[in-house]
Amino acid sequence: MAIDWISTLQEQAEFVTRIAEDVTLTLELPQLSDVQVSRLLLVVEQGASTFDRIMEEMDHDDDVDDDLFEAAADIADTWTKLSISTANKLRALQGLAPIVVPPDNGG
After folding, report:
1. Which keywords appear in this protein's UniProt record, sorted alphabetically (predicted)?
2. Do 74 and 10 contact (CB within 8 A), yes or no?
3. What is the pLDDT of residues 69-95, one digit of tens each?
């Protein structure tokens, strides 16, 4: 059975957008504990891992257009940003320096 990649990616994009909104609001809570942030990071990492498996399946499907791979890369980037921002909140609560990602110079 062929996978409808357009629908799958639309669903994943909507999901990660909702998660990003929730994570952003949660990270702004003033009395957030490091335990709560650790749990939130675990949820974000699980979401990212699930999406990684979707991307692996796409890689094995010869009928996927390049546009869909670009859309998938955008979704993966959102998961990465969520992971880094959540990890940085945890690091800040632990008194550690943030993770700094060098800018992408388009290359």
Report:
1. Plasmid
2. no
3. 999 999 999 999 999 999 999 999 999
